Amino acid sequence: MQDFIYQVDTKILFGHDQLRNLSKEIKKYGNRVLICYGGGSIKKSGLYDKVIKELEENDIFYKELWDIEPNPRVESVKRGVEIVKKHSLNFILPVGGGSVIDCAKLVAAGAKVETDPWKIVIGEEIVKEALPIGAILTIAATGSEMDKASVITNVKTKQKLGWASKHVLPKFAIMNPEYTYTVPKYHTSAGVADIMSHTMENYFSLNDGCYMQDRMAEGILKTMIKYGPIAYNDPENYEARANIMWSNSWAINGLLGSGKSTAWSVHAMEHELSAYYDITHGIGLAILTPRWLKHVLNNETVEKIATFGKNVFEIEETSDKFEDANKAIDALYKFFKDEMHIPMTLQELDIDETHLRDMAKATIRHKNGPIKGFQTLQEEDVYEIYKMSL
Ligand code: NZQ
Ligand code: ZN
């Protein structure tokens, strides 16, 4: 296990009745709030009204940034920064999913500089400070409420890029599994796939001596396999929604990747799919992951993939490790397809060969060279994995 420093001090307020703590938590940091939300799901569900009531009853001044897109765009960030500056706001309150929280993070950092916030995303402007953020999570997927990362899309340059700063780690997150009851089936499945992908990106590494992290990862994957289909079929099942929601945070908050080098391979490839075709992140991950595992299966990786099959899918061990590993990959594919009803080919998302080569090139370019993950991926490998996914 490599040396590491771990500090994630987001306060989590989990469960049914935590919204009553909202104003108290905000007032520790500010009293002039930018509420950020997406295309209206929080208005339909009634959560918007509850948040507004809580702020108004506690004399908290607020302005709103809405219509934040799934795969949030830098233009939305700029709108947010403008509102913050115009009204001297001092606290950012995203109410939504990863897209809303990621946008809010760049607003929080962008409000502290005079330059174009896109420069932060491409690393030309270093974040030295940010406005404090508190998140109200409405969909379990990205773990953005408890991590330092944010992913922003620039449609003009066809780029969807991640950036991270400790300054945008949310101060607190309100996580009520009931808020996720209204998440559509498609996005419930995409969220489960995203959580599993974060876990697998951390899990699939070689000989790192991180036994404990790997057993925790298997626990999260088993949780998804148990509760993903329940949430899909019975959206108001509290136990399922709660287990998925809490897993969503721990898949990506640094615990599983501590003590390891993990270059995330599938996410790098998926971000190009989203950048070119604006697809749902988790769906792209579900399609790519089994193909990636097939592509990297070799003498070096077979043991780990077979272990994954045994510990996560309870596949009986045989004397043939390759057979075991292939069964594991097939089980993962079947889970996504048969249990979570995810379209498992790119063609089903209307993606054909046209941009595969460009996306493969962009994947490598955005990683500044080959992806040195579970196995090193060159442009040709990425291209091959895209082709296998058609
Ligand atoms: O916009 P609204 O109307 O709110 O609808 C959203 C959106 O259409 C809807 N939704 C959310 N909560 C709902 C709901 N509908 C009904 N009831 C609710 N309670 O779901 C749709 C998807 O929302 P979005 O926020 O886009 O989903 P998600 O949380 O999966 O976020 C995806 C974004 O996060 C990035 C992805 O790349 C993508 O841009 N990621 C962020 C990461 C991070 N910050 O660490 C890591 C991830 O790997 C990922 O890359
Ligand atoms: Zn993800």
From TrEMBL:
**Which residue numbers delimit the Alcohol dehydrogenase iron-type/glycerol dehydrogenase GldA domain?**
10-177
Q: Does the keyword NAD apply?
A: no
Q: Which residues cross the membrane?
A: none
PANTHER family recorded for this chain? ALCOHOL DEHYDROGENASE YQHD
State the UniProt keywords alphabetically.
Answer: Oxidoreductase
Protein's organism? Peptoniphilus stercorisuis
Q: Which residues form the signal peptide?
A: none
Its protein name is Alcohol dehydrogenase YqhD (Iron-dependent ADH family)
Q: Which residues form the Fe-containing alcohol dehydrogenase-like C-terminal domain?
A: 191-389
Q: Which SUPFAM superfamilies match?
A: Dehydroquinate synthase-like
Instruction: Identify one Pfam family in the record.
Output: Fe-ADH
